[in-house]
Write a structure and sequence with these properties.
3 helices, mainly beta, 9 strands
């Protein structure tokens, strides 16, 4: 194994070395946790960053929800369909990346968006047919990516309540209409609404985005 492999994969020797409570970051990528997730993770009480991409997870392990200091959780390219209610107890969570899973709207706890520190949310490449309920309550959200889903409409509350949003990706969905309230996103710096069947006459609402630096509206003009 390479030096990177040895650093980023957890071995039994590491588990028994007495260093678990002091670990701040760990990468489990490409380990096979289809049948069993390491129970010792629950003892890594100082973790602030954890990645477990491509680990065959079908659910978020309960042990992860007990890591109160965890700030960044990355579980992309797995088979996760729903999130446990316990994830809403992770009070320090700032960034949640669940891209390339099988998440459905019904599988996302409403109270997830009451987490006061949550600033980055990536639900791209999932099975969402609409925006998650209560998403507008994630008041601290700076980055939202729900690209590559089947979302048909965006509730106006998303734009009126998430006033600190800086980066928004709604691309590759089925959105036909952007509510004019989008102009309320006065801090927005980048917006990607490409590959949606939008009507081009709606783009006038974007003129109110005074901080916007990057705009992607490729493949949005219906009938052209």
């Amino acid at each position: 194994a390479s030096a990177v492999d040895r650093r980023t994969h957890t071995h039994k020797s590491t588990m028994s070395a007495g260093v678990l409570p002091f670990l701040r970051a760990i990468d489990f990528t490409k380990n096979n946790f289809k049948d069993d997730f390491p129970a010792a993770v629950e003892n890594m009480t100082s973790l602030t960053w954890l990645r477990a991409n491509k680990t065959y997870l079908s659910e978020v392990p309960e042990s992860l929800t007990k890591l109160n200091k965890l700030e960044d959780l990355i579980l992309s390219r797995n088979e996760i369909k729903e999130l446990p209610q316990e994830i809403t107890e992770m009070s320090g969570l700032r960034s949640l990346n669940l891209r390339h899973n099988k998440l459905q709207k019904e599988g996302i706890p409403y109270s997830l968006f009451d987490l006061e520190e949550l600033t980055t949310l990536d639900f791209s490449h999932n099975n969402l047919d609409s925006c998650p309920e209560n998403l507008h309550r994630a008041k601290a959200l700076l980055v939202l990516n729900v690209a590559h889903n089947r979302i048909k409409e965006v509730p106006p509350s998303l734009f009126t309540q998430l006033k600190y949003m800086q980066h928004l990706d709604l691309s590759n969905n089925l959105i036909e209409y952007i509510p004019p309230q989008i102009r309320r996103l006065q801090q927005l710096k980048s917006l990607n609404i490409s590959y949606n069947p939008l009507q081009h006459d709606q783009f006038r609402s974007l003129s109110g985005l005074v901080q916007l630096e990057s705009l992607n509206i490729a493949h949005t003009q219906r009938g052209i």
